[in-house]
Design goal:
This protein has twelve helices and twelve strands. With 323 residues, the chain is α/β, with parallel strands linked by helices. It folds into two domains: 2-197, inorganic pyrophosphatase (n-terminal core) (Alpha-Beta Complex); 202-322, Roll (Diaminopimelate Epimerase, Chain A, domain 1). The structure holds guanosine-5'-monophosphate and manganese (II) ion.
């Protein structure tokens, strides 16, 4: 049984590193801190946690988030007994933490992305789970782990953010059941909502309005996209915060939109695409270009200018959807 293996590996490992994905979201952070909390309470040992890019400040309320180290603070030549990746769809999604992952004695990959190929020694991948945290709640139940209030807050937050507050189509009866269990451990749902959705800076909201305002529309408004240029971002935002979180959903919110995407310029020849759909499978579109994700929420990093990236994406959409 995979749960028995998981239990004995965690029990026998002294040095454990928990890894989150690049551009961390509520699921990877909540799952990582939730796992930290579970291991602390149930095995009485402290893990290390690593982030490979800036943690959005709205997530500062997640328990144990202050324990997370930035990749620069870790010794990349170190050999851990165990590295656990959480919500990391592909090994490249954890940037330089990949070096520590590959050197580790054992590796575990806990995730819910359909495109995850199972790159670790032990893989717990449930594509039907709405969030990696949903997979974790299942594991905690199977293993009879004690769930503290801190753990519950971490995991509930992860489920809330990956389901857009239980409104995305990935929300199932099981998602609600597990989230409900977390409320039983004393989580305040309305506090979590406020922290995740009503804590944005004024500049972020103004910036997103600007981006929506200059969006382009194609195919009778079925395709909506906008480009986020670095210089525009810097004008609104001086502290390096990610101002694009939730922007793609704003374009999908338009009644005619089938596919929405945001192209963010990271450097003149590197662009990050965040894509959302109402029904068509966009994981295949992003996978074809080297990325991945879920049927209705996917992304890809492309080594090209924003304009060229738009061309590549539209080409793929034309070929796969409108041909
Ligand atoms: P987001 O638009 O929120 O950044 O990402 C949406 C979904 O697509 C997430 O579930 C994320 O894991 C996946 N995703 C985003 N970017 C990439 C990428 O570059 N590669 C892969 N494999 N998946 C991605
Ligand atoms: Mn996730």
């Amino acid at each position: 049984m995979v749960t028995d293996q998981l239990n004995s590996i965690i029990k026998n490992s002294k040095n454990i590193l928990l890894v989150s994905h690049i551009n961390p979201d509520g699921d990877t952070l909540g799952s990582m801190c939730g796992m930290y909390s579970l291991i602390l309470d149930n095995y009485k040992k402290k893990c290390e946690m690593v982030a490979v890019s800036k943690i959005p400040s709205i997530y500062n309320f997640i328990p144990y988030i202050n324990e997370v180290k930035f990749i620069d603070e870790l010794d990349l030549s170190r050999e851990y007994d165990l590295v656990i990746n959480l919500d990391v769809a592909a090994i490249d999604r954890c940037a330089d933490a990949k070096i520590l992952f590959e050197k580790s004695k054992y590796t575990i990959n806990i995730d819910h992305h359909e495109t995850n190929i199972g790159y670790a020694n032990i893989n717990v991948i449930e594509p039907k789970a709405a969030a990696t945290a949903e997979v974790l709640v299942g594991l905690a139940i199977d293993l009879g782990w004690n769930i503290s209030n801190e753990t519950a807050l971490c995991l509930y937050t992860a489920i809330v953010t990956d389901t857009g507050c239980f409104k995305f189509s990935n929300t199932t009866p099981k998602t609600m059941e597990y989230a409900g269990k977390m409320l039983n451990y004393g989580v305040d749902a309305s506090e979590v909502y406020k922290n995740c959705y009503e804590s944005n800076s004024k500049n972020m909201v103004l910036f997103q309005s600007y981006c929506v305002n200059k969006a382009e529309f194609l195919h009778n408004d079925e395709i909506a996209y906008t480009i986020v240029y670095k210089k525009d971002l810097e004008k609104y935002n001086s502290n390096g915060e990610d101002f694009t979180d939730g922007l793609t959903e704003k374009l999908r919110a338009i009644v005619t939109t089938e596919i929405a995407f945001v192209v963010k310029e990271l450097s003149p020849n590197v662009s990050k695409v965040s894509m959302r759909s109402k029904s068509v499978d966009i994981a295949q579109i992003c996978s074809a270009l080297g990325g991945g994700g879920h049927k209705l929420a996917a992304g890809v990093l492309i080594k090209a200018s924003p304009k060229k990236t738009v061309e590549l994406i539209l080409e793929e959409i034309e070929k796969r959807i409108y041909d």
